[in-house]
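To: structure subgroup
Subject: Chain for Friday's discussion

All,

I'm putting the inputs and outputs inline so they're searchable in the archive.
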Amino acid sequence: MIVFKTKGHPSITMLGDHAAKVLEMMGYGHETPSAIGADDVSKALQNLKNSLAHVPLDNAREIDSEDAQREVSLHTRALPIIELLEAAIVGEEPIRWE
């Protein structure tokens, strides 16, 4: 589990594999704990959005066709992190994860 934090936004907890993928897409590898300075949050958000643009919107695969249950897509998983990054930009705050 990795917890992302910034002032002015609730903390976001993600499973390690999913968080590592999001961190990689932001351009920050897998290092934990770590942080992004307030001046670099905009770039991390742009990197994440650019990376997501290359992932099909429906990258989830069907698990059980009878129930039509689906895995959660990477776009859906990344949304709370995008919101956290946007809040950090507005508040001119760094983000950190551990």
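Points worth raising on Friday:
Residues 2-54+74-97 form one domain.
The two ends are 8 Å apart (CA to CA).

D.
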